[in-house]
Amino acid sequence: MINPFKKYRIDRLFFHSFAIVLIAVIGVTAWTSYSNSSKALVQTTSHYQQQLLDELNNEITTRLVMIEQISLSSSRDSELINFLLNRQDEFERYRRRAGVESALANLTYAIPLIQGIDLYMDNPILSERQSYIQFRNLGDLNKQEGAGCLAKSDFCWSKEYDFSSAQGEVPVLSFSRKIINENDYLGVLVVHIKANEIRKLLTGNSEGSNRIMADSEGQQIMKIGDTLDQNNWSQWIDLKSNKSGYVHIPATDGSRDTLLVYSRMDNSIWTLIEFTSWKQITASSLKLAEWIGLIGIAAVLLVLLLTHFLRKQFTKPIKNLVTAMRVYSVGGDNVELPVDYENEFGYLFSGYRKQNERIEELYLSLESRYEQQRKAEIEALQANINPHFLYNMLDQLNWMAIEAGQNELSRILELMGRMFRIGLSNGNSFIKIADELLHIECYLEIQQLRWGGGLEYRIIAASELQELYVPKLTLQPFVENSIVHGFNKQRSGYVSIVMERTEDALHIVIDDNGAGLKQPDHSTHKRHTGGYGIRNVRERVAGYFGESYGITLIEREEGGTRVEIILPLLTEPPTRKD
Question: Which residues are the signal sequence here (predicted)?
Fold first, then answer.
């Protein structure tokens, strides 16, 4: 085990020891008081809210069950059934319609909770627009809010929505029930009740409360106040159980910590949910914890002042020296150590300054040697490519002499003469793009003679780009690699070279339709010239221009290989540094 008095600073050890112990004691005290008091407050609040929600649930259920029973009795009324059977003449049908309308209207007058009633049937006799009773076509049932659930049930409730009535847009809840006689589907009776009346019951005496009324499937029917955005509450509530309860919902996606209290009863299909901010419930507990925390902070500050006074005179010089050593950089803006110390600290500061002077001298010497080595490596890489290229061309000439005969050698030697002239370039490392393209055209023409017309190529470069400079023999290794390796099993091939200017860089794309980068046949003899030439170009580009520019090789989706080369725009060769 490491002895902290040997590893860490003495002033921090003393300060941190006292501070950590004090903070730990205060933190445990604050957390214990907050946790216990907040649990008690949550239990008390949830118990009170559950009792209140149970009472409201019972009252709302009584009202809504009454509507369901009225709807049931009305759907079984003999006069209504006979009217829907549509077995009368027109006069008798009008008479029965008046009787049905009168009976339904009496319900709306007798029960203030009912806003209106719609009867969906075949071939209805339409009512006046101002009437509370509307006869509608059964084919328009899909326009009725909440009627879609009738596909799975004989009756259901809708969620709250705005209903067009004689008084304008009125918020309502609708109860829809199928009318069935001897297995014959005759129509649908829809009773609209005033949502504001149910809202008053849901609010109760708690103004500013946040509540939701949901059905047995967990779908939201009505809400008041600011609630969580959730259509299906089965994530938090067991809808199969008829027991009330509460859940702590942690904050997620910008929402706040919330206490969810819900009421479910045996005689009710409704679930009442109330939301209370967790912060609001635990505010008093948090206040107590904050006071304990403030006392702890005051104690820590007192310890800090005392230890700071004791350590200032002794540890400040050591701290200055450690800081200077930490931020030291060669040639940078370093910390100046004081020069007025004549004791042991003065000896330390003097020795440190002498050490820095020696480091500066060594760094300058190494930097000079590195620059000389870098120049030598670049020149060596440039020199290596000419013998490498000559080897490849001699190999090609040998093959052509055997396979094609002597009649083409004069043209090939002429093209090679041009290529060697450009390759030497009087020892220059950078040449114009026009010369680079001439060099590659000579190479491609030689390959066309070898292939007997099976090789096609194109070169696209704007005239203004051809006046720019690039490192000598940048393109040739990639084109050679396409022909030697990419087309080694093909009788024809295609090479495309496109140069474009993109912002402040030269973008060169070389495409071929050869075998690509991944060749599964490992038995084929592989030439190492292509790999060396590409590596040579990579190293030269990195040596000249750094990591901002470079070369990328990728597989083309349509087959073959794509080479992308990014180079700077050089209007003249780079100046050589001695």
Answer: none
